[in-house]
Amino acid sequence: MNYVVGPDWRDQWDVVITSAGKPAFYTEDNRPFREVDIGTGKLKFRQVLKLEKGRVYTAGCLKELTQCINWSHPLSSSSDQDDIPYDDIYSPLTSPNVMYVGDSLFADLVDAKREFGWTTAAVTPEVGWEIELQRKTEFRVAGKAIEMLLNSLRLYQRQLGTGLRSKEDLEVMDKMERLVSSWRDEQTRLLGNSFGSVFRARYQPSLFAHSLRRYCDLYMSNVGSLRHYSPQHRFYPESPKLLSHEIRGSNPECCDIDDDIFLDFDC
Prior knowledge:
It is built from eight helices and eight strands, in the order βαββαβαβαααββαβα. It has helices spanning 24-27, 62-68, 105-116, 126-134, 137-160, 167-191, 207-215, 244-248; strands at 16-18, 33-36, 56-59, 99-102, 119-123, 200-201, 204-205, 218-220. The longest helix is centred in the last third of the chain and has 25 residues, at 167-191. The protein is elongated.
């Protein structure tokens, strides 16, 4: 932080906590804070009753945090913190006005969203380089090829109707499916690793992608991405359509072929 912000970086924050010990920081309610000596890095042996600006603390838990900074729920009418139960709906912890930014989905953000309903933002570096890759012509061609091949398979079966397929029909479909598989292998190769995208398990959303959608309100490649938005900006997410009938409408087996990119296939 000294190199990024400067020697006075602690003055930019109301509270500085290091080595909080997540997820125990969320789940336990009897871990006291300890103050860190800025000069030596050693812990001071004294009770912490209030968190002061410019100092550095370690350990602790959410319950201690709310008590040490006099944090109250925006809907609470009580001025006495002792009157508010820790697990009450008006607990200072259960407020969507709290935004938590973390770089570990399961260690940082899941409990913050699931237990307290906080607004969560995930820092996911893979987003940045995947977006850059998806802008390249090779990756776009591979995606268009897969889309057109699958659309052709849908249209082909629609023309064949509900009867049994001939041997020739099955051979044509097998060849097209192998082409789809080869183009997906090409996408994996372009990603530069044998596992492919962290957001996809082959062509289905991965567990990480599902968890990101479930537990995170925002995600970005780095915190600097927020500089492009006003502090009062309101985000409106895309509709979370995951099922075929939601995406395609009443005719999920057929879609229009986009002719922006023309490809010639030899089946």
